[in-house]
Design a protein that fits this description.
By secondary structure, this protein is an alpha/beta fold. The chain has helices at residues 43-48, 67-78, 91-96, 121-130; strands at residues 34-38, 56-60, 83-86, 100-111, 114-118, 135-139, 155-156, 159-160, 173-177.
Length: 182
């Protein structure tokens, strides 16, 4: 417990539109009710995937371009599923609260040694293994570049967010070993 605080655990707050206290309006999340989507999934692969209407779809935003969140959310909406977008670094909280049922990761290439996935997949796969949550890989939208523009992480909507002389490093894909994809 952090000194000066009255609670020892964080809770999901009702300010999130997907989280309400009234079960008739979506209610609190049930343990293991969230499917977590990561990466820029191809529309064809996501159409083949079925998510139960009672489950919740959370989509990682996909920094720095936010393209993953925008595209995957759009495909889910067309399928009649209302997604909740989270920033990439919020996924750990969902695991900590025991809310994640499965993880869907966008994959460029896979073999028996692992998979080349959109950036951010490795940490989700590691968390999933730790929490004994299944990870599924679906075909990603094909990337033609594996390294992004360093300037894309130093600004947001044309506004510089990092001090002058700060460098950016923007890998767009990473290797996820097979031991995390079981």
């Amino acid at each position: 417990m952090v000194q000066g605080t009255k609670q020892s655990h964080y809770s999901v707050t009702p300010e999130c539109p997907a989280v309400g206290r009234d079960p008739a309006k979506g209610g609190d999340f049930n343990r293991g009710s969230i499917t977590l989507f990561q990466g820029i999934l191809s529309p064809e692969s996501l159409k083949k995937f079925k998510i139960a209407k009672k489950d919740h779809a959370f989509v990682c935003e996909g920094r720095p371009s936010l393209e993953a969140g925008r595209k995957t959310s759009g495909i889910l909406l067309k399928s009649g599923i209302t997604p909740t977008m989270i920033s990439d670094n919020m996924a750990g909280f969902l695991f900590f609260k025991g809310l994640v049922k499965e993880v869907i990761i966008a994959c460029q290439y896979a073999d028996n040694k692992g998979a080349l996935c959109d950036m951010g997949a490795l940490i989700l796969a590691v968390l999933a293994k730790k929490h004994k949550i299944p990870v599924r890989i679906l075909q990603a939208e094909i990337r033609h570049r594996f390294i992004g523009d360093p300037q894309s992480i130093l600004s947001f909507e044309g506004q510089r967010t990092a001090p002058k002389n700060t460098h950016g490093y923007v890998p767009l894909v990473e290797w996820v070993p097979a031991k995390y994809l079981k």
